[in-house]
Structure formats: structure tokens, C-alpha cells
Amino acid sequence: NAGVTQTPKFQVLKTGQSMTLQCAQDMNHEYMSWYRQDPGMGLRLIHYSVGAGITDQGEVPNGYNVSRSTTEDFPLRLLSAAPSQTSVYFCASSYLSRGYGYTFGSGTRLTVV
Amino acid sequence: DAKTTQPPSMDCAEGRAANLPCNHSTISGNEYVYWYRQIHSQGPQYIIHGLKNNETNEMASLIITEDRKSSTLILPHATLRDTAVYYCIVRLPSGGSNYKLTFGKGTLLTVNP
After folding, report:
1. What is the three-class DSSP state of B79?
2. What pLDDT, on the 0 to 100 scale, is given for residue A2?
3. Residues A57-109: pLDDT tens digits?
4. How confident is the model at residue A1 (pLDDT cuts 50, 70, 90)?
5. For residue B104, what pLDDT is reported?
6. A5 touches chain B (CB under 8 A)
7. Which residue among A33, A59, A106 sits closest to B99, beta carbon to beta carbon?
8. CA–CA min distance B65, chain A (Å)
9. Can you point out the beta strands (E) in chain A?
10. What count of other Cβ atoms lies within 10 Å of the Cβ of residue A39?
11. A33 vs B: CB within 8 A
12. Cβ B44–A58 below 8 Å, yes or no?
């Protein structure tokens, strides 16, 4: 039982490049989400999904795309990286049933130069 | 989701109990109190949650006042590895409008040897 696995752990991109941050969970959680964490800003929700084929925007979705083709995977795509997207990205998952806590991955540190 | 207020920082001696307070005076009747922590550079970790009864698990105890306007997270025997930022979050158990976890600034707990 690996929990929530994020890859890569570190990434440096040039402005304008695209990339995909991977997130996989093996707990059969219906809910998956992406957060970014910036100094002084706390964690902010980017996108989330309540099941395969269902995604929705969080509070800071611009510049990011997601898809949920399977229950296990929830990749986050940066379409054209910008320095403002330099951040630490966390994936989280949970059951939708009443009261469950969220399980977070260990994060991806992204630097856009 | 109800707003929470936590002290910015607290100190605790190793081996002693750490009592972390949280005020949530605007909590509604069906909102739960959740606690998470974030150890430096790691993803947030779920600790415990409760509605109105006191709760205990292998990590901590949660004491919620009778009027539910405040709560206390208790780490019974703090260790150096418990040094982290602790977040108190109040929300509906099934996620409310968009399942977002709203992290405030939390309390930095420093456990001293």
C-alpha cells in the first residue's frame, strides 16, 4: 500500500515549456485533488475530481489542465510554464464518504526559470 | 466553511503533552473539526477529526467544547518529530461546495529537547 505517489519530486522548466506532474493512489479513493503551496499563501486548490471522468476547477486553475481517466491516476498538466507557477505541488486523495481525512503525496517542487 | 483561529506558534518540552488550541466560533451544526500537520518540506498529514464528541486515535486526542466553538488537539507525549505546523480546519464531512480544504496559517509547534 503505497498511498499517494507523486512524480517527479523535483523539476526545473524553462518558461513556455509544458510538462505533466503525475499523481497515483492505490487506495481506491474517489476524490483526488491538486494543491499548490507558496510561501505566505498557504495551500490553494487547483483542480479536483470526484471520480473517473469527472473534474472541476478549484480556486487557482488558470494555466493547468487535468483529466481523470482512471480511479488511480490524476495527472496535472502545465500547458506553457510561467515563473509564477514556481511552487510546491501536492496531490491529495480521499474517500467521499462522511468524515474521511485526506491523504497527501510528498510533493513536487517545480521551478520555472 | 467556518473560519478558524490558531496561535501562530507554541513551544513544548519533549515528553510533555502538547495542547494546541483552535477557535471556531462560527461553526455550524453539521461541520466537523479536522486537524492536519505539515512537517517541514513534506505533504500535510491527517491527524484526527470529530463532530462533537471527544476523539482519540494512535496519534492524538481531540477535545471539542460542549458549545463546539473551540477545540484542543492533544499530543500526549510530544517528541522532536512532532515539530510541525498544525492546521485546524472546520468543514462539512462530504466536502461542502467543492471539497476544498481551506488551510489557514496554522500553529508552528516546536518541541524542544
Report:
1. coil
2. 75
3. 988 999 999 999 999 999 999 999 999 999 999 999 988 776 678 999 999 99
4. low
5. 84
6. no
7. A33
8. 19
9. 4-7, 10-13, 19-25, 31-38, 42-51, 54-57, 64-66, 76-78, 87-94, 103-104, 108-112
10. 7
11. yes
12. no
Distance from CA of B43 to the nearest CA of A (A): 5
> What number of CA atoms fall less than 13 Å from residue B34's CA on the CB side?
28
The residues of chain B scoring below 70 in pLDDT are 1-2, 93-99
Nearest CA in chain A to B101: A45
φ, ψ of residue A13 in degrees (nearest 5): -120, 155
Under an 8 A CB cutoff, do B94 and A103 touch?
Answer: no
Closest CA to B103 of B37, B18, B52, B56: B37
For chain B, what is the largest distance between any 2 Cα atoms, rounded to a whole number of angstroms?
A: 43
What pLDDT does A98 receive?
62
